[in-house]
Design brief:
Radius of gyration: 24 Å
Shape: elongated
Helix content: 25-40%
Number of strands: 24
Distance between the termini: 49 Å
Number of helices: 12
Largest sheet: 7 strands, mixed
Strand content: 15-25%
Bound molecules: MU-OXO-diiron
């Protein structure tokens, strides 16, 4: 995609990755973008580079505006290699006099690239650098979502370059939020938040407060993935406020895997119980069919998770172990849950799932259902009752 002018003198010069489907274990069915921004002032400044294999697109775009060798400053808002991977190639073409990064960014850049001769300069939190007619202010956003992360605020442009925050994995021909279907954008934005930012929700809350306290004046947010927000800023900011506050809706997720469909039969009755209790939005998701990152996206605004697995060789199924490990790392807060599963002889899965739910700080409710061989009427009735009991808790929590 060719360069796109955001405002007079500042351009999107990044790359669209239409084909990526796995982003370090996160399913990206809609591809992604690696956004890079070029500001033409007395000091020509590039904000972030792109993933290594997309370097030709970056160079192609920059070259349509300026000679890349004329770039004076490079700002590295984030060192993760989807943004910095092409840095070594870039520095063979461009010779910026200064590379701005955060304190932790400097350490991460050295750790990644060992560029001892690079002209790194640590940008202090709040530091402003003059670029000519305009200026940039750096805002440290440590752990959103890496220690090195920072924002670049361009007050003269009323523009906030927000790195990973407010982004989504979405490849599109339109660069702005008003050029792409908003339902699609928000579907990807919630998935992005759940899979990338959820563990840092407390810091997201602080960040939004800080932005308000500093009275930053911006009418455009330019993240490093997905669309640039110029119309629906309030929509994405209020979504971040909601997601980071752990508010749950009248929603539940039944996640499971099954060998010979017995556990699946139990899942079906649990789902019915939840629905009959009045839970408005129930997602029954079988691992192997549903990707872990899609289950997490549904879980973000759910109140309950009921997890089930057959027992295989004295363990839960590997897909469930994978999912629970992933979920625990994302630190879901303020949820309730239970476990279920069918087994042949040893039947450890339910106990092990329960331990993992506890380890993820999920409050256990209802009576787990654990059944040997194929569920009979009683086992299915117990499954239904588990769904009903948890469903009542969900409905009560939503009213509370
Ligand atoms: Fe888009 Fe944390 O990298």
């Amino acid at each position: 995609m060719k360069p796109v002018e955001l405002k007079k003198g500042i351009y999107w010069v990044g790359a669209v990755d239409w084909n990526i489907r796995d982003f370090h274990g996160y399913s990206t069915y809609e591809g992604t973008t690696y956004n890079s921004y070029l500001l033409v002032d007395d000091k020509i400044t590039l904000f972030d580079t792109v993933k290594k294999e997309h370097f030709p697109a970056l160079m192609d775009n920059i070259s349509q505006i300026v000679d890349p060798s004329k770039i004076d400053y490079l700002v590295v808002n984030h060192v993760e290699t989807d943004h910095s991977g092409s840095l070594p190639q870039f520095l063979q073409v461009a010779k910026p006099e200064t590379i701005y990064c955060s304190d932790m960014g400097q350490k991460a850049l050295m750790g990644h690239f060992h560029g001892n001769a690079w002209p790194l300069k640590v940008a202090q939190n709040g530091e402003t650098v003059n670029l000519g007619k305009t200026k940039v202010q750096f805002l440290e956003t440590r752990m959103l979502h890496w220690p090195d992360s920072m924002f670049s605020y361009l007050p003269d442009y009323k523009l906030l370059i927000s790195n990973d925050a407010f982004g989504e994995h979405l490849a599109s021909s339109g660069r702005f939020d008003d050029e792409v279907d908003m339902n699609l954008i928000m579907e990807q934005a919630v998935k992005y938040y759940a899979n990338i930012l959820w563990p840092y929700s407390g810091l997201v809350q602080k960040l939004i407060t800080t932005i308000k306290e500093l009275k930053l004046d911006f009418d455009m947010i330019a993240p490093d993935h997905g669309v640039i927000w110029r119309k629906n800023l309030n929509t994405i900011i209020s979504a971040y406020e909601r997601w980071s506050s752990y508010q749950a809706g009248n929603k539940a997720v039944v996640v499971y895997d099954t060998m010979w469909k017995s556990t699946e039969e139990m899942a079906r009755y649990i789902t019915q119980g939840l629905t009959d209790a009045g839970v408005k939005d129930v997602h029954q998701m079988r691992l192997g069919v549903s990707h872990r990152s899609d289950v997490i996206a549904q879980l973000l605004e759910a109140k309950a998770i009921i997890a089930g697995s057959s027992t295989l060789n004295n363990n839960m199924l590997p897909s469930m172990a994978d999912y629970l490990t992933y979920m625990k790392g994302l630190r879901p807060g303020q949820k309730i849950g239970a476990a279920f599963g069918s087994y042949g002889w040893s039947g450890e899965a339910v106990k092990d799932i329960t331990a993992m739910l506890k380890a993820a700080n999920i409050e256990l409710k209802g009576e787990n259902v654990r059944h040997q061989w194929v569920p009979d009427k009683a086992a299915l009735a117990n499954s239904y009752k588990l769904g009903l009991d948890i469903g009542k808790e969900v409905v009560a929590a939503c009213k509370g």
